[in-house]
Design goal:
Length: about 100
């Protein structure tokens, strides 16, 4: 893997890991502050964080890499993403996201 790609992947992981790792463990709402003056922010902030994270990450997750180091990271992040989604749609999870209001 060339140095530019390593830099971009390192930057990508720095951005997405806090959201994915916390939601994958069911603790995003407990650890991520909600900012903004609108009273509806708490209802949508965590879903928005997950949605934006997955939207930006999806192209990288979709295509396997021939580089072993990158592929190992990709598989790990894909696993976190699946676990995060599972918490977002589980009504019994502390990180359950309301998709209707």
């Amino acid at each position: 893997m060339n140095e530019t790609r390593k830099y971009w992947i390192k930057t990508l992981l720095k951005i997405v890991t806090p959201v994915l790792s916390n939601m994958a463990e069911g603790r995003l709402k407990a650890t991520m502050p909600v900012e903004g003056k609108s009273p509806d922010r708490p209802a949508v902030t965590h879903l928005e964080a997950l949605g934006r994270t997955l939207t930006g990450l999806a192209p990288w997750l979709e295509i396997p890499s021939s580089d072993i180091e990158e592929e190992t990271e990709r598989i790990h992040v894909a696993d976190m993403a699946r676990r995060a989604i599972a918490h977002a749609v589980d009504p019994n999870s502390p990180d359950y996201c309301n998709f209707t209001n």
